[in-house]
Amino acid sequence: MKTALTIAGSDSSGGAGIQADLKTFSALGVYGMSVLTAVTAQNTQEVSDVEELSPKIIAGQIDAIFQDIDVDSIKIGMLSNEQAIRVIAERLNVYRPYPVVLDPVMVSKSGYDLLRPAAKNALLTELLPMATLITPNLKETEALLGYPVTTLREMEEAAKALVHLGPRAALVKGGHLEGEAVDVLFDGTDLHHFSGERVQTKNTHGTGCTLSSAIAAFMAKGRPLAEAVTEAKCYIQRAIAEGLSIGHGHGPTHHFHEWYTKEGIKK
Ligand SMILES: Nc1ncnc2c1ncn2[C@@H]1O[C@H](COP(=O)(O)OP(=O)(O)O)[C@@H](O)[C@H]1O
Ligand SMILES: Cc1ncc(COP(=O)(O)OP(=O)(O)O)c(N)n1
């Protein structure tokens, strides 16, 4: 069985973070493992508290996995602070895993900083260059590049500009625009568009986590990048369309094993 590792924070409500990643890996038939960076007290309405884990235990979790198990892909999500970024970069430089899908999580839907603003530079210099793919939303793209991105044309230019910062490829997600939900991939050579019908729903908690871990799962199974994004986009479309009205805020995406067959996502 193929394996995938998520390095991310815990979401107590189970909709985002490590929990969303592991549910996605499992639904897509990949054996999931986790390295926890922080614990959030979170529900569908807000993040009320965060406790960060020490660099020592983050390094310990990474070493424990890599010294024993073959890792077929990695997804990186919430990092919280600079020390976590530095220790993760340092350990991954030792094990040199491939592929690495980096979702540069910065702020929760409710406005809580999931990455301390002072840690942005470390993210840019330490982790972006070792990523196979980064998957920022529009706000994260703006934070990484330092200028606003609000149209499809600007998303295309932004994806190219992000690749100049070091990752091999960049997927700029258009989930927060109006109209069709279009994401733009620059793979270092070509631009690709991935379009999905916009679902009118408030149950979009964990969409970014689900998409990036689905890409990591498909890459663990050996799919080339653009094909992995195509299949992951199909998965997130269904996960949002069948999102769950759990809690009083933004409910989570739905993960259902039976959607996924050898032939792909069941319609
Ligand atoms: N209402 C929606 N209908 C269909 N697709 C959506 C919707 N909202 C987000 N998406 C898709 O979900 C994925 C995650 O995007 P986004 O919500 O922008 O990320 P994030 O959770 O990081 O803010 C993207 O593929 C985006 O196009
Ligand atoms: C622990 C944790 N990690 C990441 C996120 C952000 O998840 P995302 O998929 O971007 O979803 P929303 O925050 O937009 O709902 C998180 N909330 N918690």
From TrEMBL:
Q: Does the keyword Iron apply?
A: no
Q: Which UniProt keywords apply?
A: ATP-binding, Kinase, Nucleotide-binding, Thiamine biosynthesis, Transferase
Query: Which Gene3D superfamilies does the record associate with it?
Result: 3.40.1190.20
Alphabetized SUPFAM superfamilies for the sequence: Ribokinase-like
GO cellular component terms?
Answer: cytosol
- Pfam family for this entry, one: Phos_pyr_kin
Give GO MF terms, alphabetically.
Answer: ATP binding; hydroxymethylpyrimidine kinase activity; phosphomethylpyrimidine kinase activity
Q: Which residues form the Pyridoxamine kinase/Phosphomethylpyrimidine kinase domain?
A: 11-254
Q: Which reaction does it catalyse?
A: 4-amino-5-hydroxymethyl-2-methylpyrimidine + ATP = 4-amino-2-methyl-5-(phosphooxymethyl)pyrimidine + ADP + H(+); 4-amino-2-methyl-5-(phosphooxymethyl)pyrimidine + ATP = 4-amino-2-methyl-5-(diphosphooxymethyl)pyrimidine + ADP
Any idea of its EC number?
A: 2.7.1.49, 2.7.4.7
Judging by the UniProt lineage, the source's domain of life is Bacteria
Pathway recorded for this protein:
Cofactor biosynthesis; thiamine diphosphate biosynthesis; 4-amino-2-methyl-5-diphosphomethylpyrimidine from 5-amino-1-(5-phospho-D-ribosyl)imidazole: step 3/3; Cofactor biosynthesis; thiamine diphosphate biosynthesis; 4-amino-2-methyl-5-diphosphomethylpyrimidine from 5-amino-1-(5-phospho-D-ribosyl)imidazole: step 2/3
Q: Which InterPro entries match?
A: HMP/HMP-P_kinase_dom, PM/HMP-P_kinase-1, Ribokinase-like
Q: Does the keyword Signal apply?
A: no
| Annotated GO biological process | thiamine biosynthetic process
Concerning its family, UniProt says:
Belongs to the ThiD family.
Q: What's this protein's name?
A: Hydroxymethylpyrimidine/phosphomethylpyrimidine kinase
